[in-house]
Amino acid sequence: MNKLEVKIGSLTLKNPVMTASGTFGYGDEYISLLDISKLGAIVTKTLTMEPRAGNPAPRIWELPYGMLNSIGLANIGVHRFISEKLPILRDYEATVIANIASADVAGYTEVIKILENEKGISAYELNVSCPNVEKEGMAFGADVETLLEVTRRCREAADKCLIVKLTPNVYDIGSLAQAAVEGGADALTVANTVLGMAVDIESRKPRIPSALAGYSGPGIKPVNLAKLYQVRKAVDVPLIGCGGIMNYRDALEYMITGAAAVQIGSGTYKNPRLAVEVIDDMERYLNEKGIDDIDNLIGTMK
Amino acid sequence: MAPFLEKAKVKHKEEIFPGLYIFKLDSEIIASYSQPGQFVEADPGESFFLRRPFSIQEAEDGLEILVKVVGRGTAELVKNETEWNILGPLGRGFDFQNLNGALLIGGGVGVAPLKFLYKRMTRRQYFRQPHLGLDKAVEQASFWGDERTRIRFVIGAKTKSEIPIAETDYIRQKVIVSTDDGSEGFRGTVVDMLKAQSKLWEDNPKIYACGPAPMLKALYEFMLEKGLDGQFSLENRMACGMGVCQGCAIPMKNGYKLVCKDGPVFDFKDLDERTWMI
Ligand SMILES: Cc1cc2nc3c(=O)[nH]c(=O)nc-3n(C[C@H](O)[C@H](O)[C@H](O)COP(=O)(O)OP(=O)(O)OC[C@H]3O[C@@H](n4cnc5c(N)ncnc54)[C@H](O)[C@@H]3O)c2cc1C
Ligand SMILES: Cc1cc2nc3c(=O)[nH]c(=O)nc-3n(C[C@H](O)[C@H](O)[C@H](O)COP(=O)(O)O)c2cc1C
Ligand code: FES
Questions:
Q1: How many CB pairs under 8 A join A and B?
Q2: How far, in whole angstroms, is CA B210 from its chain's centroid?
Q3: Rounded mean pLDDT, B27-52
Q4: B266 CA distance to ligand 3 middle (Å)
């Protein structure tokens, strides 16, 4: 029996460790460094209908406990993903979750319709942290009505497992989680990057041209963990913890709090093998503690 | 199929002048795949979130890296005398097939990738001239080429003590030096020297350049004016170093390019005014 196996809605994963969107490319980049079929799942870089060039440079800034980024969803577009990347991922038997986004509600369902008939995609993850052009650029995931609408429309379009990736940059994340579940989400990822900023005191310019950026890394773990705790109380679907995971202990904190799975994000940049190391360490931990099924650990916070 | 992760033992460390170090690392796999212009990303240790990129200066007998201390990460790295955690080789290197004359221009630590390139270029030259006799040719023409091959190496530094190559080497190897204060070689920047000494580029050599952004920008404008062509190795802040995060993008003629994957070596014709603005 596989101790690490977990269920995310209709999806069974060989272990609970995924790589987070935007931090593992399209997966094929890592083939020389690790066995990508070992991962619970690979979440792709956010895919949009058309390729996107991304935001002005510089796009990243390192911090003591993580980094800021403002990439602007630079990606190759859904069509090139299908023709160039997906065949490789299928060959290597990777479990793939397609992360998708759009500037308007209808755009999400169009991307899903294109992916729906492709073999080798196990689920969708909706990136709802991006600005909605129909609502003055407010993030889809920051407004209950919009989130309900986008999730419902995607649910209608998708047979595959549907995951909504929440933004932590809201006060009442519980209501947003409820909206996504009401709209038909099978699972929720908690959460995307935390709003952050840094300023150069010499030039007095922000470190990232747009000033506001996404903060990731160990500095946000307490924030996203608290969000997951709040979401756990609000809804009953499987949760995927994400934010600042740098080792198996961080991953287990999320799981004990109630996550059925986790995503390893920007920690991968320094250690490209981080996700597989977390899997191995997690298994060792279960053996040491005499736990014969990871399900017996999930949500067991006392 | 690269890249690879390696724990590379430090074989040798030398401080060439205050704040500039040569490290020789005991790398097998990364070294064997390395091409001139490619780089590695080194992990400065637990208290750093990201790796730091460094050009490969030499990959014949392990890996040689030139490290200038500019901040916390590099200060931490040069203290590590045991084992470096490196990822590489990364990026696209220089093209040097079908050469008909080359002028290599390095500013400061920008000399590192050019040293590797020069060595490979002149080794190729040697193989094309089997009548020269192997050992002797390697020893004499050595990696620094000579006039017959029309491969010239120009380096610029602030002052004599900051030339990033040992004095015996650059004199013996006939490297052409310029210093801002005139303490060695030409007085002025490398671009000042090119302006003053047209014989360096009149025969239209392919120009290979790496150095600080102001030097590259001045050289870019000079080359545009004179109609010269070549390749530049550029820098940007990096996270993944392998084309994954899209963080190191810089504007080029045909839109954004990733320094870590599309570069760090770019064709001169792809550079643009906007490239220098970040
Ligand atoms: C492809 C490539 C090859 C390089 N090759 C060499 C080399 O052979 N030898 C060498 O000494 N240095 C090289 N660098 C630069 C080196 O990576 C930076 O100096 C180093 O990352 C700074 O780290 P730090 O923590 O000490 O500095 P920080 O404290 O982070 O910053 C100090 C200063 O360094 C600059 N800096 C920081 N990160 C980078 C970066 N990734 N690229 C450029 N500048 C940066 C900052 O603008 C700042 O002025 C290379 C950079 C790139 C992108
Ligand atoms: C450079 C970078 C790019 C990212 N791109 C995306 C993206 O395209 N889509 C998305 O949903 N999340 C993206 N993220 C967010 C991550 O998937 C993750 O949710 C976040 O970084 C928090 O996890 P971490 O602290 O482990 O990195 C990106 C993060 C970084 C650092
Ligand atoms: S550093 Fe990540 S894409 Fe270049």
A1: 96
A2: 6
A3: 96
A4: 15
